Amino acid sequence: MLGKDMTPLLDLAESVGWPVLPDVASGLRFMRHDLIINHLDQVLLGPAPDADCVLWFGGPVVSKRLGQWIATARTLARVSPAFGRQNPHHVGGLQIQAEPIGVAKALQGRLFPSHAQHPRHWQAMERTVVDCLDHIDVSDTLDEVTIPLGLARWHDRQATLYLGNSMPIRDMDMFAPACDATCRVVVNRGASGIDGLLASAAGYAHGSGLPLTIMLGDLSTLHDLNSLALVAKSPVAIRVVVINNDGGGIFHFLPIAEQTPAFESLFATPHGLSFEHAAHLFGLRYHQPQTLDRFVDALGAGGSSLIEVRSNRAMNVERHQRLKKIVTESLGRPNPA
Predict the structure, then answer these.
(1) Mean pLDDT lowest for which of 13-17, 31-35, 52-56, 150-154?
(2) Most buried among 136, 166, 277, 307, by the most CB within 10 A?
(3) Domains along the chain with CATH numbers
């Protein structure tokens, strides 16, 4: 639904009183609206309401927890212009091959409003998660948790936000706050997840004529390093934000991290490299900010650039787990205000 006016979807939700549970790639994830549950992946750590009826607009979802919740739906109708199941949980239901916006318009006035308390429950859980995340210490830490805060704080309403796979797209989903500006979000999930992201981002920027910020990991950057030449030649500004945790950080969240002595060499695959010389090789401005404020400054510096953020994989896992524990415990007593 890239570039579509989402107003009909929100109008439909308002007419029936249903919450909007946005995927991070939908463009709705970062929008402020009473019925949008922005921190859905975190909210689903708590006791979510039963899925009586789900209207699923668009393609596959990134959040594993959202996919699992959808799989519990008593009634499911999925609307997508693409043919195919795209349903990893193999949930039965009605599948409509059509443009979601057109279907949302057609459903206006044809669904009965809900009198359940579900929206209030979702909203209370959302407020609880926001309260938890508002206490994240950003004074001297720039890492996978605070980078989404910086991107949301700076975001240029004219720019495209291109989210890389593995942890970057998941961290944006978990930690980015809602923005006052609308946000054009692009993803390329791909076959193996990390191939060709810089090339496809440069192609999108060229085709759209809009400036672009891409957030991706170090291994994704290494796999497509020569495409920095396309970034340097782009007629519009492309900011490449590389999160360099020296390997595949996502594997630290999987059981395999505890089960094999060869984890580092076969899964984490550390490389020990910096991207400073790569930026200079292709004539790109290079920044390596150490704080959130300096990161926001680098985003606003103008022109195409490579912004490298160094982090530690082990510390990142510990920080995620600590925040998850805080949110989970707090959702046992959601904020009703």
Answers:
(1) 150-154
(2) 307
(3) 7-130 (3.40.50.1220), 137-323 (3.40.50.970)
> From CA 13, how far away is CA 198, in angstroms rounded?
36
**Average pLDDT over every residue of 98-114:** 88
The pLDDT value recorded for residue 117 is 63
Q: Residue 15: which of 122, 98, 104, 126 has the closest Cα?
A: 104
For 100-116, give one letter per residue: b (16+ CB within 10 A) or e: bbebbeebeeeeeeeee
Residue 291 and residue 326: Cα distance in Å, rounded? Answer: 24
Tokens read off for 113 = 């409003």
Q: Report the greatest alpha carbon distance in the chain.
A: 61
pLDDT, tens digit, for every residue of 315-327?
888 888 999 999 9
pLDDT at 109: 86
